[in-house]
Amino acid sequence: MTQRLEKRERFSKVSHLRRWVTVLVSLPLVALLISMGGPLLFAVFIGIACILALWEYFRIVFDKKSKAELGLIQLLGFITSPIIIWAAYINSFKTLWVTIILNLMFSALISLQQSKNNSYVSEIVAKQIMGIIYIPLLISHLVLIRNGIDGIIWIYFLLVIVFFGDTGAFYIGSYFGRHKLSPIISPNKTIEGALGGIAANLCGGALFKYFFIPRLPWGLSLLFFLLLGVVGQVGDLFESKLKRNSNIKDSGSLLPGHGGILDRIDALLFAAPLAYLFKEYILLG
Question: The pTM is what?
Answer without folding.
Answer: 0.91
